[in-house]
Amino acid sequence: MAGARDGVLFTEAIGGPTLGDLLLARPEETSILLGRCLAELRPLHRPGAARRLGPGAAIGERGIVDTFCRKFDGEDTAAYIVHLDSEQRRREGEPVAELVRGSVRRLLALRETLPATVGTTLAYGDLKPEHVLFPDGPDRRPVLLDPGLLRASPLVDLASC
């Protein structure tokens, strides 16, 4: 961290491959790479961590259901899928965009039945593959960007990975 002011963290720029890049290049190492990410989160998942954060510090709307519905119910979904189409990434011969489109459609249909993310530990809450960088290579510790801290079960972070 380079500094903080009025609740905003200022950080230094960091490079390196993202978790997404590494998962595409090394699918056989998925378990190892995700394990490194979750190891960085262990301090958040200890009992009492949420109390140390203090009231109001966690971001309430960062729950999985709220975040998913906010980001994938409208124009953002269409823009994201257009971006995926333009990247032309393929999985087993099927466009990634089509896989995402179908998944989003099914998940939005289930949104009323998804559980709330209430808990007594902290969750990082925003582990998009592009928010996890490996500046010193895939065999070293990752750096996690853009935390969306919330009080929840540690399973939220596992689901986010």
Structure, explained:
With 161 residues, the chain is α+β, with helices and mostly antiparallel strands. It has helices spanning 19-25, 30-41, 49-53, 64-71, 75-87, 96-110, 155-160, and strands at 3-5, 8-10, 90-91, 94-95, 121-123, 132-133, 143-144, 150-152. A hairpin with a 2-residue loop joins strand 1 and strand 2 (8-10). The radius of gyration is 17 Å and the shape is globular. The two termini are 23 Å apart.
How large is the count of helical segments?
7
pLDDT averaged residue by residue: 74
Residues in β-strands, percent? 5-15%
Low-confidence stretches: none
Number of strands: 8
Structural class: alpha+beta
List the helices and strands and how they pair.
Blueprint: E1 3-5, E2 8-10, H1 19-25, H2 30-41, H3 49-53, H4 64-71, H5 75-87, E3 90-91, E4 94-95, H6 96-110, E5 121-123, E6 132-133, E7 143-144, E8 150-152, H7 155-160
Antiparallel strand pairs: 1-2, 3-4, 5-8, 6-7
Helix pairs in contact: 5-6
